[in-house]
């Protein structure tokens, strides 16, 4: 029986998903997409899951699309029909990117090695990105005549500005984890030996927080980029009306007043 393409483990309220094609640098295939999306859907539906960590097996996080996959491999026959890569994006990458951005719990990317192409943008689409010092990020698309996908054209300029986004996408240069943190592409670079423990500690901390408020914070920040200031202020007011009526707000205030640790349960 073949080994799973995504390894799933659970520690208290934290579920860890490990991309498991180490011999191919955890590059995406249609089979990996299907298995990963299934594990994310299962985590979203499980009330015992309060935070997710995504990482990679072996020396890579994810090297992007596996170019040997029949869904993208060019046809070498003169005049032969070529694969429709846009169809693959529609079937696999868009559902994956949207699933990450609509998870009912925080999602942490623990980038343990190279994250290239769609693998880089998949990581950047997570809520918080931690990276090992030896890790790197590569917008490899221009090297094979493509444009950034898996949300890259939306994510990059919002994270690092237009100038950096264009330079990273056009050159396809490797960006070290330290430089990724320096320019704001990721949240934090940590020593390799500390990545797993640091990601677990952060996930455990988030799992104890008011999850609905964290998820609505993600939505509010993403939506505010398309609003003017007044509209963003109004959106904040609407969200606070909703959140202020929830049990976690009452528990948070009660715990603050009693000087005790809160017990949040909303999800």
| Quaternary form | single chain
Largest sheet: 6 strands, mixed
What fold name goes in the CATH topology slot of the largest domain? Answer: 2-enoyl-CoA Hydratase, Chain A, domain 1
CATH class of the largest domain: Alpha Beta
- End-to-end distance, in Å? 36 Å
Q: What is the total domain count?
A: 2
Q: Which parts are unreliable, with pLDDT below 50 for 5 consecutive residues or more? A: none
Helix share, percent: 40-55%
Q: What is the count of β-strands?
A: 10
Note the topology.
Elements: E1 6-11, E2 14-19, H1 30-45, E3 51-56, E4 60-62, H2 85-101, E5 107-111, E6 114-116, H3 118-124, E7 128-132, E8 136-138, H4 152-171, E9 174-176, H5 177-182, E10 188-190, H6 195-207, H7 211-224, H8 229-244, H9 247-258
Parallel strand pairs: 2-3, 3-5, 4-6, 5-7, 6-8, 7-10
Antiparallel strand pairs: 1-2, 8-9
Helix pairs in contact: 1-2, 7-8
Task: Write up this protein.
With about 270 residues, the protein is an alpha/beta fold. The protein is about 45% helix and about 15% strand. It folds into 2 domains: about 5-205, 2-enoyl-CoA Hydratase, Chain A, domain 1, CATH 3.90.226; about 210-260, no CATH class.
């Amino acid at each position: 029986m073949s080994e799973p393409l995504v390894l799933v483990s659970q520690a208290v309220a934290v579920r860890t998903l490990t991309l498991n094609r180490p011999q191919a640098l955890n590059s995406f295939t249609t089979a990996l997409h299907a298995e990963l999306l299934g594990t994310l859907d299962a985590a979203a539906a499980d009330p015992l899951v309060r935070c997710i960590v995504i990482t990679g097996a072996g020396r890579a996080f994810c090297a992007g699309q596996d170019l040997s996959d029949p869904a993208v491999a060019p046809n070498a026959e003169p005049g032969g029909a070529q694969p429709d890569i846009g169809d693959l994006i529609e079937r696999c990458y868009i559902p994956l990117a949207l699933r990450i951005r609509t998870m009912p719990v925080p999602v942490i990317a623990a980038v343990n090695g190279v994250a290239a192409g769609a693998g880089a943008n998949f990581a950047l689409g997570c809520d918080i990105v931690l990276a090992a010092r030896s890790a790197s990020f590569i917008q490899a698309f221009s090297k094979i005549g493509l444009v950034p996908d898996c949300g890259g054209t939306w994510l990059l300029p919002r994270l690092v500005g237009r100038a950096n986004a264009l330079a990273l996408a056009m050159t396809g240069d490797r960006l070290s984890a330290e430089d990724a943190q320096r320019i704001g592409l990721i949240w934090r670079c940590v020593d390799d030996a500390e990545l797993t423990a640091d990601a677990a500690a952060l996930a455990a901390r988030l799992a104890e927080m008011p999850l609905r408020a964290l998820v609505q914070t993600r939505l509010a920040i993403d939506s505010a980029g398309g609003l003017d200031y007044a509209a963003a202020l109004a959106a904040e007011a609407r969200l606070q009306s909703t959140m202020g009526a929830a049990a976690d707000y009452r528990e948070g205030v009660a715990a603050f007043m009693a000087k005790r640790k809160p017990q949040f349960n909303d999800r």
